Amino acid sequence: MTVGIVVFGLVFLAGLAIGTRTRRPLAVACVVVGAFCALLVIQSNEPFVAFASFALIVLSGLVVDSVRETVGLLLGR
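RESULT FIELD:
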């Protein structure tokens, strides 16, 4: 379990590193983690479940990024 947490943490950090170029590091990190998770799930021959996991992770990341940006605008940052 520790190895899984470390691997997902490293994938998330890699997504953040890639996302710093696009000025949306959280959204890009969620896309990278979603793709990694879907890659793991698709190995069990469940393509619809893999797509659903990818979509849920990406959409939740986009919502969190949108909320973060909205709060930043409201607080004047």
